[in-house]
Backbone:
């Protein structure tokens, strides 16, 4: 409370250059024997009338403390006020010296305090668990201060508090395990607690004393009492304590890594004053506790950290060895479940969700991923209360109240999600936490201290154990490892692709050269056979002539095969020159050519609709030439042979069908159809190299088109080819 | 005028001796007037073409049949280039032969001054047919110098 102090002491504000009093609490007449109004503007000596100290020795001591830049070193400065022992406590703030006078116990307790502090140190070192440590600290503080109740109060992430250790007089009702809403200790109070580590209220029923004058020097506001030991607290807090039946209190901050971890909260049910040396001893115990808190927490974490870091290392090795992230994370004895305390993990990779352990269904995991994408752009996200954040998540809260997610690729929906089960807990509130705000007569909501501290039990659902820092850190490390592997993989694939491209080109060039070079000796074989037949026919019997004709026929087949291979390799290499093709004329010319060579047969080659096709003229001609000659070839024994060509235009593509009534294709062998050199059993009697359809497929591949067929043996075969339409440029 | 005692001089260049043997037989059969020299490489061909006896009137080839692939097609074009830049052979008809059916080969050969381009026959009968056609055109029909 600004500008007021508690009634058990005196406060004066002094200019440091000339020790003139600029402000003083209105009760200083007890010290000085003169009204406070007369004291202002006088040197500090004027204050000491009713003490056993003379001005010059006080000034000297202050001077020494200031010269050493350690005003604290003076504290406490002992004196007597009206023959009662007292202490002066000095601090420097906002350009002024502040002297506070307060009572003290007998001289003799200095040694006792030291002993107790030493004992506390030994106990803290001896306690093995956190609970032991906290209980021991509470006990020590109670012994030291004599408060009726000493509690260790721990803040949660949402700043509500929780009594984790308690030492009290037997007749008092225990508060251990009770929770207090965050509004009980508002944010401004918590900020103050981080600066001024020890606060005392001696008697809630004693009227506080104003400081005169109200405003400090030229600051146009009261003096800032943040560092004052006598500072009066807000009437709201006083009311809060009164509602609880507490008459005097002390609280000491417990700090962990610069943040408020908790408090040592002391209550007394009658007025109680704790003097400066005792307070300092209690503060020392609190600091000791803070330090070992840090130490112990780190130690607990360290063992866990070591364990999961080792496992994470194993995961990384597995992923590298398998060259597969999903396998490395899920398919070995050590899995992604071993790097934290989750009960289930889902890996969303390459459009698939893989799960291990207890998880929501893959569909639900996909919902969660959608929610993550809407909620967060961070690479890591964690919560211990997913059902409270995400609509619909309550249905699987048993397995997924806790969620830890790392993002691998937002664009590809690639995430790893860990789940923790719901932990249903009973929280015992000291009073209903939802009613800290009361509405006054004027109808306005106002913050008022709670009146009820009746135990109020609440069942908390939708929450899991929180994720520990090391779990989060390890998940991040795993993410780095995975991204590195993905990167390496991408590079590796790029290199493989390049090698493949080169190999492919070489193979094409090779097959081109080879087929070319094969043709020459082959034509020699044929030529020599012909020479023999022609020049020496008189000397050859029929059998030899027959055999020579077989050599010639075989070399003809080989020549045709080689020509086809050359063709096949050329279709992969030649540049594509796409344009809109007049299919009617192309098909008509083809029909004329074919019919001309098949004059002796009863062949009907029917051309129906001929929508234009976008493609390379030579290649498309090759396609239809292959399809039509196949159709004609495999209908050789039909009377009449009927071949029908028809085209349909769709939204995005043009599809042609070529149907014949020939020998048909056994659909069980359909998979082999487009492979190079594959010939089906019922086609053995028909001439062919097994390259035609492979060429066709290759050409369509280069056009981003498709080829497929259906057939009934000895009834019909229909081949379909489709060509994408050109993309319209707007 | 071209029916000299030494016949109609032809130079045939192909790196494959089997082809030369087959062509020789076919030549004797369908083009007996030809007095053909066979060479298997550019080098041999050049040496032959630079010899004084070859250059002597009445002896030099009036027709050159040249396989592009010797064995590389650039070899064939190199010889063609040599001929087209040679004062003596600049105007001599050169018939290119190739087993490749690459349109680019055809185009490039004409661009470099080939007189005609023939797909290389793949059999004895085809050779006879082809050489007969060459005889009909280059010996009977065309006036050469």
Residues:
């Amino acid at each position: 409370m600004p500008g007021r102090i508690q009634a058990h002491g005196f406060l004066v504000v002094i200019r440091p250059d000339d020790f003139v009093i600029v402000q003083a609490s209105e009760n200083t007449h007890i010290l000085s024997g003169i009204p406070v109004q007369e004291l202002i503007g006088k040197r500090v000596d004027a204050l000491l009338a009713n003490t056993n100290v003379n001005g010059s020795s006080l000034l000297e001591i202050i001077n020494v403390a200031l010269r050493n830049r350690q005003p604290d070193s003076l504290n406490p400065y002992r004196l007597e006020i009206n023959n009662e022992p007292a202490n002066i406590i000095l601090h420097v703030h906002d350009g002024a010296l502040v002297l506070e006078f307060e009572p003290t116990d007998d001289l003799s307790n200095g040694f006792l305090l030291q002993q107790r502090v030493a004992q506390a140190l030994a106990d803290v070192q001896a306690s093995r668990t956190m609970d032991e440590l906290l209980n021991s600290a509470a006990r020590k503080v109670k012994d030291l201060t004599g408060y009726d109740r000493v509690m260790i109060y721990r803040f949660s992430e949402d700043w509500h508090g929780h009594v984790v250790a308690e030492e009290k007089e037997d007749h008092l009702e225990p508060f251990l395990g009770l929770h207090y809403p965050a509004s009980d200790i508002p944010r401004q109070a918590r900020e103050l607690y981080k600066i001024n580590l020890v606060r005392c209220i001696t008697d809630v029923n004693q009227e506080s004393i104003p400081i005169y004058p109200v405003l400090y020097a030229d600051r146009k506001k009261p003096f800032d009492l943040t560092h004052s030991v006598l500072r009066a607290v807000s009437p709201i807090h006083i009311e809060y304590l009164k509602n609880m039946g507490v008459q005097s209190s002390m609280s000491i901050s417990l700090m962990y890594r610069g943040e408020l971890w908790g408090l040592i909260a002391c209550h007394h049910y009658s007025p109680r004053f704790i003097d400066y040396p005792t307070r300092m001893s209690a503060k020392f115990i609190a600091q000791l506790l803070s330090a070992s808190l840090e130490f112990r927490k780190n130690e607990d974490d360290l063992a866990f950290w070591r364990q999961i870091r080792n496992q994470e290392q194993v995961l990384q090795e597995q992923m590298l060895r398998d060259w597969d992230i999903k396998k490395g994370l899920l398919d070995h004895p050590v899995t992604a479940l071993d790097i934290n305390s989750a009960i289930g993990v889902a890996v969303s990779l390459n459009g698939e969700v893989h799960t291990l352990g207890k998880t929501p269904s893959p569909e639900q995991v996909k919902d969660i991923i959608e929610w993550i994408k809407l909620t967060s752009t961070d690479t890591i996200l964690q919560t211990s209360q997913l059902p409270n954040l995400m609509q619909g998540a309550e249905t699987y809260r048993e397995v997924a109240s806790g969620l830890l997610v790392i993002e691998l690729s937002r664009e590809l929906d690639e995430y790893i999600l860990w789940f923790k089960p719901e932990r249903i807990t009973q929280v015992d509130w000291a009073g209903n936490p939802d009613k800290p705000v009361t509405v006054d007569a004027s109808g306005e909501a106002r913050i008022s201290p709670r009146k009820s501290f009746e135990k109020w039990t609440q069942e908390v659902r939708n929450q899991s154990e929180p994720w520990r820092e090391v779990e989060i850190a390890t998940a991040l490390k795993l993410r780095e490892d995975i991204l590195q592997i993905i990167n390496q993989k991408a590079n590796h694939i790029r290199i493989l692709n390049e090698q493949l491209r080169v190999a492919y080109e070489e193979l094409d060039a090779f097959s081109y050269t080879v087929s070319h070079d094969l043709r020459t000796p082959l034509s020699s074989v044929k030529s020599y056979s012909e020479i023999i037949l022609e020049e020496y026919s008189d000397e050859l019997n029929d059998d030899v002539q027959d055999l020579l004709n077989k050599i010639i026929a075989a070399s003809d087949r080989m020549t045709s095969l080689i020509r086809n291979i050359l063709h096949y390799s050329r279709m992969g290499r030649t540049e594509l020159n796409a344009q809109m093709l007049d299919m009617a004329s192309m098909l008509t010319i083809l029909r004329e050519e074919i019919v001309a060579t098949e004059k002796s047969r009863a062949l009907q080659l029917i051309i129906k609709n001929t929508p234009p096709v976008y493609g390379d003229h030579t290649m498309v001609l090759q396609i239809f030439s292959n399809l039509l000659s196949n159709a004609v070839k495999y209908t050789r024994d039909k009377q009449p042979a009927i071949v029908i060509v028809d085209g349909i235009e769709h939204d995005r593509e043009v599809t042609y069908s070529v149907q014949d009534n020939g020998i048909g294709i056994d659909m069980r062998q359909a998979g082999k159809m487009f492979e190079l050199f594959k010939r089906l059993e019922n086609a053995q009697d028909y001439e062919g190299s097994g390259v035609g359809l492979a060429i066709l497929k290759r050409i369509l591949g280069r056009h981003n088109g498709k080829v497929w067929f259906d057939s009934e043996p000895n009834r019909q075969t229909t081949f379909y080819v489709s060509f994408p339409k050109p993309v319209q440029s707007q | 005028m071209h029916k000299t005692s030494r016949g109609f001089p032809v130079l045939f260049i192909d790196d494959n001796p089997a082809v030369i043997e087959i062509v020789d037989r076919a030549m004797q059969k369908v083009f007996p007037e030809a007095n053909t020299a066979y060479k298997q490489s550019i080098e041999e061909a050049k040496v032959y073409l630079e010899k004084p006896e070859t250059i002597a009137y009445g002896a030099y080839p009036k027709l050159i049949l040249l396989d592009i692939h010797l064995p590389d097609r650039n070899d064939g074009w190199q010889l063609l280039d040599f001929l087209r830049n040679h004062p003596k052979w600049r105007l001599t008809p050169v018939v290119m032969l190739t087993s490749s059916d690459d349109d680019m080969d055809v185009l490039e050969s004409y661009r470099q001054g080939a007189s005609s381009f023939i797909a290389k026959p793949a059999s004895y009968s085809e050779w006879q047919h082809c050489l007969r056609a060459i005889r009909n055109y280059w010996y009977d029909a065309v006036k050469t110098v």
